[in-house]
Structures are given as structure tokens and as C-alpha cells.
Amino acid sequence: MTTLPFQPRGLTWTVLRLHRLPLWIWAALVVAGSGGLLWLHQLGQDAAAYSGHCAVGGTGTPQCSAGLRYAGDELDFAQLLAWIPFGAACAGAALIGRELQHGTSVLAWTQSVSPARWLAAKLAVPAVALLGGTAALTLMFRWAWTSGPDNGVNRWSGTYFNAAGTVGLAYALLAIVLGALAATLTRRTLPAVVLALAGTALAYTLGAAVRPHLWPASEVRGPWGAALNHVYQLDLGMITRSGKHVSGLDCSDQAVPGDLNTCLSDHNAVDFYAKIHPTAHYWPIQLVETGVVLALAAAAVAAAFWALRRRLP
Amino acid sequence: MSREPAALEARGLVMGYGRRRRPVLRDCSFRLPTGRICALVGPNGAGKSTLLALAAGVLRPTGGTLRVLGAGPAEARPRIGYVAQNRPLYPQLTVAATLRLGAELNRGCWDRESAERVAYGAGLDPKATVRSLSGGQRTRVALALALGKRAELLLLDEPMADLDPVARHELMCALLAVVVERDTTVVIASHVLGELADVCDYLLLLEEGQIKLAGESEDLLTAHARLTGTSPDFAPHTVVESRATGRGHTALVRVQGPLDEVSRLVERPSMEELILAHLRNPGAPALFTGSASPAPSQEAAA
């Protein structure tokens, strides 16, 4: 504690001291993750330098394998970042559930710390550590990813969307708060952890399901090209002569592939359409989703305080 | 009639855990004036720990009211010291860090000297983690935290249960020294009276969730007598417990009039006898001395 630039006092000191080990482990993980992302950035620079000389699939010069390795490692890091909320859910549930289960919360409450202040500190200190670490890792990941070679990754893929934007921070915060809520509801560690993990998984799933509707989608007409590989595809289909959009129609059933006009007339259609979110919608959707998740987190905080107060005078 | 605020004042207190289970406290009423050292005695499961947890403001009663130091239990929490029966302490902290925690959470009013005297009295290593301590050593540390807080009311749940006789005596002396100096009110819950009898000047006897005896130890003792005579009829006194002995009949009675010392042998019962007689005979009516009866109602007090 002597190395800290500020001298924590009172309740803050207590929470830092009580959770010294988990906080150090988290700090070590953040440092290790940052080191890994630094290395990933370097790998990406190497891969980008040679990408012009390599055919798709990484054949050509021996250095072309760097591109393949980079793509795999980048995905690994994205997945690790996207898993942070699950760790946060466990931490929130365990840090608070353990105290309620073993009665050590009673010790704090009868040592001049009101239960509400106690819960606030037990939430705030880990949340600050969690958000600081996650923000650093997210920024470093974005830096490595955006400066690396373009390896055809869709920025809208669930893993990348959570790992490289503000929603990742919001989900981490929601998860730790859900952990606290589960702990104050069950007052036991293990059920709280299970409940918090389930809640976090549900939030992730709902988030992915609701995401396309958070911003009005655009529609593009004409044959589907490679440009669609980089947008968020919501719906593909054809427009019939009557002007109706029929979803799911494509040309895979053509005897002779390639002739789009024949394909269109076979389906009694006049044009192709694609409902998409272009890259321009990326940050609006990130921010709207972040707002929604933060609102949920605020509601979960209120519920956790209510659940704690329910049994107290 | 106006009285100074009591350390504890319960009125029709009810506490149940779950709807289907029988309540632990049932219509429990009593008053404990400040400045007393009170033994809260009762058999296992009588509701002693529940009553202390309610007084410490860490449980919400199902019904009734409880005033602590003239305030609600939640508001009074900063003014009380509580040692729960399971001695909650953070296992990962050392003894020294646990005392530091007490000092950090009670900045400005922490009594470091008393806390250290109680914690380190028996040569406890400050660097030992709480996890490695024995039950008795944990009790020491928990008691040190409660004392260091300079509380006005100490609620101690079975504080002596896991201490050896030497430590009991030594800790009790250390506790009393602090308590007498500060005029602290103390409630000590125990299922046996034992050596508490010499220390406590107030008694609350709790049985099946209700208070059976409440008041100054002296007053409770003088309200009772052990009579031995030839006749099994002890009127006009209320018989708490009677049995036939070799030469006649002996009864522990609640005195209701002049004692006839001619035809009967009149003896003063010990506190232990008094409690046992009441525990063996749950039918005996409850007895509250004047200071232990809760004020009849707010209107009457005003």
C-alpha cells in the first residue's frame, strides 16, 4: 500500500486491504494482457508489411504465415476481452456473497459503517479497478486491431463488437453489479455466482438480439458484392414486381450460376436488396447499447440496495 | 412519569425466520436501564442470539418495536459494540490488520489501548492471520474490536463459551475495567449463569421467545424465597417449584406477603437456583421489576 500515490483511509482502506489479493491478481492480468497486446501489435505490423506480397490464404513468402498467426491471435485476444464480464460477475457475487454468507458484513456494519455505505464501497472499489483495467485493455486491443493488417474481420461480429468498444465496459460494469445483486438476494456465494453468470449470459444474448434494432437500418439495392462482407447484414432478399421485399430469396438454385437477370426473372423479381448497418452506424449503435446497458446496471444497483435493506431495520 | 432512555426497550417484539416456522421471539417485552451489566440467560434456542442481533440492528424484526439507547436499532448502530456468536472476522487479515480495520472504520474515536490490551493479552502474535487462530483467540480479537469502538452498549453473544477458565477470568477483568471506567451498558448472553452471577447486576431470563424474569439481580432474589415446612401448602406465596423432601416440603416461592419464619425454614435462593426453578417450570408467571417493565405506552409517559 505504500507505493500508492494516495493514502487511502477508512472504508476505502478497508475494502482495498480486504480484497488485496483479487485486486493484485486483476492488476497482474491487466499488465499481462497489455504485454500480450503490445506483442500482438508488433505481430500485426510484421503481417501488414508483407500483406501486399501474399495471396489470400497466406501462401507466397515464408513471412505470409505471420498474417495467419496474427488473425488467430487477434481473435483469441478479442475472445478474452469479451469474457471479462463473466469474470466480473463471479467477482461481484463472490466478494459480496462471501461476506453475507459468513457474517463478516455484520462486523463492518457494527463497526460504524452503515450497510448502504458498506455495499457502496464494496461495489465502487472493485468497479473502479475493473473499469480502469478493462478500458486500458480495450484501448490497446483497438490500437493493435486497427493498426494491424486488414484480415477481413467483420467489426460487427459479436466478439469484436464487445471487445473493441464502449459496450465492453458497460457489460463489465453490469456484470459486477449483477453479481452484487445476486449476492444480496441469495446471501450465499455459490448460488450468487451461478445466478450472476446466468444473468450476464442473458444480458449478452439479449444485447446481441436487440443490437440491430438500436439504430434505423439502411437498405442497399443491386447485386450483393464484397462490400457487404464489412457491414452488419440484417436481411437479404429480392424485390418482386409488386414492390414487395421477399426475404431469403437468392440465386443458389440457379442451374447456370452467374446470370443475375435470369435469376431475378425466375423469381419474378426486379432487384436485389440488403438491409444493413453500414460502418457509419458502428459508433451510434455502440453508444446506444452502452447507454441501455448502463441504465440496466443502474437499475441492478438500486435493486441490490433494496435487497440488502429488505432484512435490515 | 418520565424516565431516561433505556439501553434496550422491547415492546411486543416478534421475530420469525420464514412463515412456516415457529417464531423465535414471541411477544417479547422488557426494559434494560443504562449502566447495567446484564446477563441474558436462557436455554439453547430460546432466542438470545436473535434478540442480540435485533438489538445490534443487523436483523429486522417481524413485529413489535425495539428501541436501542433511545433510538431505532439502525440509528443506534454506531453507538453499540456487538460480538456475534460466530465471531465474524476476516480470515485473510492478520490480528494487527484486524485492529487497524477497527481503527480505520472508527476514525477519531478508536480506543487503541483497550483494544490491544484485550487482543494481545495472552501473547497473541499480531502477525498471525485470523484464519490460524483458535476459537478462544478469535473471541479475544472480536471482543477487542467491540471494545475499541468505545460503544455505549456492548452486546456480547456467549463471549466466554470458548475460553479456558484462566482466560475467562482475565478477559472478564479486562472487560469490566473498560466498562466501569466508561459506564457502558453490557448485555452478556449465555446459556449458563456460572461466573456471570458475580459480575452481572441485572438479569433477563429468556425462555421460548419470551422474557420470564427481568430486573436487578438483588430485587429478583429478594422477591423469592426457599421455604421448607411440613405442609405442602405455601399460600399466600406463588409457588414456582415445589418438591417433597425427607422431612417435609420445600418450595421456591415468589413472596406475596409476610414470611412466616416460625413454622417454616426460610432461606435465600441463589441466582442459579432461581433460574433453574423457572426453567424447569415454564408455567410460572413472568416477573418484571419496576425498572424492567417497559413504559405502559407513549401517552402515559407524556
TrEMBL record, chain A:
Coiled coil stretches, renumbered: none
Organism: Streptomyces mangrovisoli
Keywords, comma-separated and alphabetical: Membrane, Transmembrane, Transmembrane helix
Name listed for the protein in its UniProt record: ABC transporter permease
Record flagged with keyword Chaperone: no
Positions of transmembrane segments: 21-40, 77-97, 118-141, 161-183, 190-210, 287-308
This protein's record includes keyword Protease: no
Automatic annotation (TrEMBL), chain B:
Record key words, sorted: ATP-binding, Nucleotide-binding, Transport
Pfam families with a match to the protein in the record: ABC_tran (PF00005)
Transport listed as a keyword: yes
Domain ABC transporter: 8-233
Superkingdom: Bacteria
Gene3D superfamilies, alphabetized: P-loop containing nucleotide triphosphate hydrolases
Molecular function via GO: ATP binding; ATP hydrolysis activity
InterPro entries in alphabetical order: AAA+_ATPase (IPR003593), ABC_transporter-like_ATP-bd (IPR003439), ABC_transporter-like_CS (IPR017871), ABC_Transporter_VariousFunc (IPR051782), P-loop_NTPase (IPR027417)
Name this polypeptide is given: ABC transporter ATP-binding protein
Organism: Streptomyces mangrovisoli
Classification of source organism: Bacteria, Bacillati, Actinomycetota, Actinomycetes, Kitasatosporales
